[in-house]
Amino acid sequence: MTTLTFNAYYTLIAAVLVLLLGSWLVRKIKFLQDFNIPEPVAGGLVAALVLFGVHTVQGVNFQFEKPLQDAFMLVFFSSIGLSADFARLRQGGKPLVIFIIAVSAFIIVQNVVGTVMASALGLDPRIGLVAGSITLTGGHGTAGAWGKDLEAAGVQGAITLGMACATFGLVMGGLLGGPVARRLIRGKPTPGLAGIDDSKPAAGDQEVVFERPHQQRLITAESGLQTLAMFAACLAFSDIMFKVAQGTWYQLPQFVWALAGGVLVRNGLVLIFGVNMFDRAIDVFGNIALSLFLAMALLSLKLWELAGLAVPVMFILAAQTVVMALYATYVTYRAMGGDYDAAVLAAGHCGFGLGATPTAVANMQALTDRFGPSHKAFLIVPMVGAFFVDIVNALLLQGALKVIAWVS
Asked: What is the dihedral of CA 350, 307, 72, 41, to 10 degrees?
C-alpha cells in the first residue's frame, strides 16, 4: 500500500484549500447556511470523502504531519481563555450564575447518558464521552482536541467519530431549539415586535466574541503584535505546566493548560494592570486558528474506522437529543424563571448543548424575530456558550475520565 506524506507546509496549503472549498460550499448550499455548518467542516468532510475514495480504489494512504495542527489547536483554546473576562459576570448577575450552574449540571447528565449507553452497547465507555459533552457541548474544536488524546490512550477512531457526532449535534441543535421554545411560549405573554427599531442597537448588547467570524474588524500591526505576545505567553504556560503536571494528580491535556493560561493572562492584565484588552484581535486569531485546526483534523480522518460504531453511536446520539429536549423544558426553562426570556434561553441551551454557540444564537434570533426581543438571553447565552462552558466542560471531562479509569 502506497503512503503519501505531506510535511507541515504542504499540510497548511491543503488546509487552506479545504477552507476555500468549504467557503464556496456554504455560499452555494442553503442547508449548510440554515444549520450553521462551519466552513472547515463542510470542506473538510468533502475532502475526507475524496481521500477515502482514493484509499479504497487505489490503496493510497495520506499522511499529514501534525505539528501545525497541534499549534493551531493550542492557539484556539488560548483564545477562549483570553476572551474569558470574569468582570462580565457582574453584568449578567444572578441569572448568569444560575444558567452556568444549569449548563454545568447538563454536561454531567450528558456524559452519564453517553457512558452508560456505551457500556450497555458493549462499547468503550470513553466512546460515550465522545458522543457526550466532548462533541455535543464542546463542538468540533473540542472534538478534535480530546479525540487526539483519546486516540493516544487507545480509543481508535476518536477524532473521526468526534467530527461526525459534532456535525450531527449542529444539525439537531438547530432543529430542536425552536420547537422546544415554541411549546414553552404557547399561551404565555410575549413582548411582541411593536415599537422595535432595528436601526438602533438594543440596550445591553455586547460585542459577541466568536459569534461573528465574518464581521470586519480593524486591527493594527501594534494590536496584532500585542495579541500575539499574549498567545505566546499562553502557549509557553501550557508547555511548562503540561510537563510539570506529568504523572501528578493535576495532569491535564495541554490544550486545557492553554485555556487556563489565557484566563490567567486576560484577567491578570485587566484586574492588576488595568489593560484594555483588544478583543477583536483575539477573536480573529482564534477563529483563524480554529478553522485551520479543523481543516487539518478533517484531512486526517480515517472514515473506515467508523464502520463498527455507526449504529450503536446513533442510538446514543438519539438518546442525547431526547435528553436535551427534556432538560431544556423541565430544568433550564424553570430554573431561569419560566417566562418568555427563559424560553428563549432554553432554545439557546438546545443550540449549544447539542451544537455550538452560533446555533444557539440562530435559534434565539428565530424566536425574537417573531415574538419580540429578549435582552437577557442575548446577554447570557453568548457569554456562557463562547467561553464559560468550555472551561467547565474541560474540567468535568477530566473528572469523568478519572471516574471511568477508577471504575474500570
From this structure: -60
